């Protein structure tokens, strides 16, 4: 596991409130983060954020054009901060992306290659968004992949189930946080 990093993706206040509010998601995720730290694995946070005025968002981009019409997501907006229950510790890396995948519009690939990381453990919100897009791109980049099924969440539980049970296993190992912790600690 020496070349493995835990990715904590889009666990920002505004996204947690919309997707995982009222669940024990953050408690589970904190356990995974703490286990990664205990095993001395890098923890990399990926956040979505834009400049004031959102010049990175095209009106042709259906997913992100709603953001530029009033939903915010400027990098300095407190609502886009990483949720305090899972906030980074000193030494954790924070990468800012401009699209759904953690790789697109960010320096994530440079960070991973520089750290000789070849295996990724994926967590985040939403399963059908950042997790799916990042998994697909990371698989094409030849990373070994693990998805922490209960370390992801989606506003549609059925979509989450289909992705984690039927789609993701084609390209990744899908395990629970507890199963993963027993392997790393």
Automatic annotation (TrEMBL):
Which GO MF terms are attached to this record?
hydrolase activity
Q: Which domain of life is it from?
A: Bacteria
Record has Phosphoprotein as a keyword: no
Keywords (alphabetical) are: Hydrolase
- Stored Pfam families: Isochorismatase
* PANTHER family xrefs: ISOCHORISMATASE HYDROLASE, PEROXYUREIDOACRYLATE/UREIDOACRYLATE AMIDOHYDROLASE-RELATED
State the species of origin. Kribbella jiaozuonensis
Recorded hits in InterPro entries, A to Z, give: Isochorismatase-like_dom, Isochorismatase-like_hydrls, Isochorismatase-like_sf
Q: What is this protein called?
A: Cysteine hydrolase
Q: Does the keyword Hydrolase apply?
A: yes
Per UniProt, residues of the Isochorismatase-like domain are: 4-178
